[in-house]
Amino acid sequence: MTLEQLKMLKLVAEQGTLKSASELLFKTQPAISQGIKQLETLLGIKIFNREGYRLKLTNEGEQVYRKALRLLSEASEIQQLSKHLAQGNEASITIAIEASYDLNRILPILENTQNAFPRTQIILRQEYLSGAFEAVENDQAELAITPIGILNIESGVFDANWLYQGHLINVAAPRLLLRHPDLKLVDELRSEYQIIVQDSGHASKGKNYNVQEGQRCWFANDFSTKKTLIMSGMGWGRLPEGLITQELENGSLVKLRLKDIKTDLDLNYYAIKRKSRVLGPVASKLWKSLSAQGDSNKHE
User: pTM for the full model?
Assistant: First the structure.
């Protein structure tokens, strides 16, 4: 069985005549007739009913036809994928994104890239704290979007393009604040639980940043869980601004305005890559698009 025979089967079934099929395939009618007969002999069934003017599929032929369509479609996908890879395009790329980053900011970039390179699989890898940076550092991702320190930028190992400044906001639920009507200092929350997201990297090495000594803590694996715990009144902590805009507006979460700790923690997000890593066409397009977005934000 050959793909050429399956193409003959498809066109004869759809056109109904050898003449029409031969014109579309640029083959003679006898060649197509012979190809169909060989396929019938190979399969041991009669594919077409030849009694009328137009060739019609038999019941068995109808089932073979549907399978042939699937095989031809898969063959076409293989050919397109092979062409895609032959041009140097990646089969897949990984972008590590720090979870506090507002993903809505790059949805248009991701959509444009996917439309331009539909054969490349884009893997979004959500990380916490140092995890996204380490994914690029350890060559587990081509690109990362993460807040990074000035020492990392100036190390000479990484290319970094500033994207925008975001905020982590210290919040609590009204239910918790009712227990502290005159709250002024973070020390007064020592007996409450501070909800903390665990680092998916290794940079923190067990250290908890922005946590006072003796503070009770609960640890969560993601911001969604952390938000749920805070909104229930079971604790307090910092959440990404984009994740709690509605809650701040309707009062289900309240900013903690304390004298000895910042309410808003500023985070400068960068797109980063290793200088030594050569990017393929798809990752390069993403990198350029992210860089252009950063340049646009600088002029806003």
Answer: 0.68
